[in-house]
Design goal:
Shape: globular
Strand content: 35-45%
Largest sheet: 6 strands, antiparallel
Length: 113
């Protein structure tokens, strides 16, 4: 995702268990990014999808673009990675749970039956 550059629309990915890890499969998704929470509320996943990830770009303040990549697993594990355009370096990415709690919850909710 980072290699695709900035100014991307929201992107949605399915995480499918493959051996000891996951395969990441980008999904077609019609979201403009204006109301991502509403757009996520319309999604559900089949049982063979172990998790999901979402990447969105936001502007926090003028000149402070960030890319949030949220991941959620059916096991209730969630995390968000934050990458600032101004410090666009893999070593500068912050990763933790509860960085974007509403977005994390909305993505996790897509995995519930």
């Amino acid at each position: 995702m980072a290699t695709d550059g900035w100014n991307q629309p929201p992107r949605l990915f399915a995480l499918v268990t493959e051996g000891p890890g996951y395969s990441v499969v980008e999904q077609p998704w019609e979201s403009t990014g204006e109301d991502v929470l509403r757009d996520l509320a319309r999604i559900s996943w089949p049982a063979d999808v172990s998790g999901a990830a979402l990447s969105v770009q936001r502007i926090l303040e003028p000149d402070h673009d960030v890319r949030l990549t949220v991941g959620a697993l059916r096991t209730q594990e969630v995390a968000t990675a934050v990458r600032y355009r101004q410090h666009d370096d893999a070593a500068q990415v912050a990763i933790a749970a509860n960085l974007a709690p509403r977005l994390e919850r909305a993505l996790w909710d897509t995995l519930q039956d």
